[in-house]
Amino acid sequence: MPSLDVSELNIVVSILGAFTVLYGLIAVKLKGVWYLGEALPAVLVGMLLGPVSAKFLDATRWGSAAPDQQDAITLGVMRVMIGIQLVIAGYQLPSKYLKLHYKELIVCLVPIMAMMWLATSVCVLATIPRVSLLATLVIGACVTSTDPILSQAVAKGPFADKYVPRPLREIISAEAGANDGFASPFLMLAVNLLRLTENRQQTLVERSRGVGDDTRDVGIALGNWVIETLIYIVLLAIVYGAVTGYCARMGVRFSLSRRWIDTESYLLFPTALGLFIVGTCGALGTSDLLACFVAGCALNWDGEFLAETERRHDEVNSCIDVLLNFGGFIYIGIAIPWQEFHQPDITGITYPRLFGLGVLVLLFRRIPSLLLTYKMMPEVVKNWKEAIFMGYFGPIGVGAVYYLQHTRLLFPKEQVASARERELLDAICPVVYFLVLFSILVHGLSIPILSAIYKFYNVRPITEDAVEIRRRSIYVATPPNAFKGDRDTFIVYNRFFRPLVGMTTLPISRPRTRSDNDSMSTEDEEEKKRTQIVTFGRVDTE
What DSSP assignment string belongs to 117-161? Predict the structure, then answer.
């Protein structure tokens, strides 16, 4: 007898499928015209259908519905989501990018991140009343890194194609990929100074006395930080990612030379590599995020992997990227702890304080550090305007949620935690989640507003560095900052993906016509453009 089976699995996959279908029907409008991206609509759907509103989606009811299972689910979702996309972000950078721009990356990962950490911690200390200095350092470290997924939307989205120079886009993408793993030293330094170590097992450095008032305790905490964090978590992750990426590149080259690997397997290779690294690094206890990014860079170290994906018309990884964004950000919308955003009697947290914290973090977390250091990166950040752009668009997202859940695992449950640990555990969840929500809303709406301002002041898109790409269907919309070359091609300016380019006639520029912004044009318009003489560089995509 047929019966209605409204199980949690059926509800989740139905909602994810419905959202993907409805979003896809107007994706060109959402991304290319309104510049809304995927994160903001997905989070709003999660909020509307989550446990505080429609109650269709609730992670506490999933699986066995065990107590506290949501923390483990959240950490797992974030790890897989970030790990795969960091491999993709790594291989999409130009060949040898880490070697050619190591000075700029060192500036981004050391002085800029240190200033971001301290500035964010001061903002938390100024707005959240019942949190100690060391607790604010832990919270600040969770939101120090720029989110690798939201930053990719800034660096590679339609708005960036039109208005953001490629060197700036590349450093934003590379910094977001690398600094998510480099947030670990700042986090673990604060954690080692805060936690009482009688709740943890013995390690290489003697821990029996704990971290207390004795000045020698600082030396113990620093010793554990150097051994556990700098050497085991960071250095091992870099070496592991580099070796794994190198071996993967050699394996792919060997299989290609003998034509053993088919197109499907080749295009799925970054996703499979990301899953492998997330699993093995999780087992080893080292940084899976940093290892994934390094492996992605090593995979395309000679530029051949990205070039071959272009020749094979890769749309697989972008589709995986979109699907992960939908699922991950809908989940964040579900997991937002609304009930903890107002607890004046416990931590002093209220909605006005959180809103003030969001504004302070937006203004002081990143912009001042970029203005102080951008002259140390003249090849990628040309002037103070680009420094402000790079400083403003340093969003907080899934990386912060990952570090939040990771931090909560480092401390005992609240019932047996010390007073200092309890005040941290009470405050860290609402503060981090609110900053994530605030960043998604503000940065998600900033691009449409900035685009409207550019149009009002008639700021012209970048019309340099052109490349021809193949048009796969007459129903394919014209890419951002592009025009139709002939029936089978588009001419694209300022394209992010440029594998093995050898162009001598660039840049080019031409006046735009009305039909350049249309998804299709008439036969007469196509014939006129076929008669025009356009000098451009060609990337072999066949």
Answer: HHHHHHHHHHH-TT--HHHHHHHHHHTTSPPHHHHHHHHHSHHHH
